[in-house]
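One example given next:
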Amino acid sequence: MSKSIVVTALGARTNFGKLLRRVEEEGRSLIIEKRRTPRAILLSIRDYVRLAVPEPEILRVLGEESKRKGTSAMTSRRIDHVIKAARARKSKRG
């Protein structure tokens, strides 16, 4: 997780949409303070899941391999296309 953004509760309420986008797009967490005391943290879903449910080793290895091969950024549509093509090739052989 990258550096956190620290805001007051009032600032978080006033700028929630903008801060939510930053948390999602920049992969940052948001620390919300009230009277200079940290009260809550806003995390992206990805960061929350990463913290709440650690990846089994095999998923971590597969994720690293996917990033290395450049397949980690595939869209759902592209994945569906690849699956359909593989199934079509398999049915032609069998």
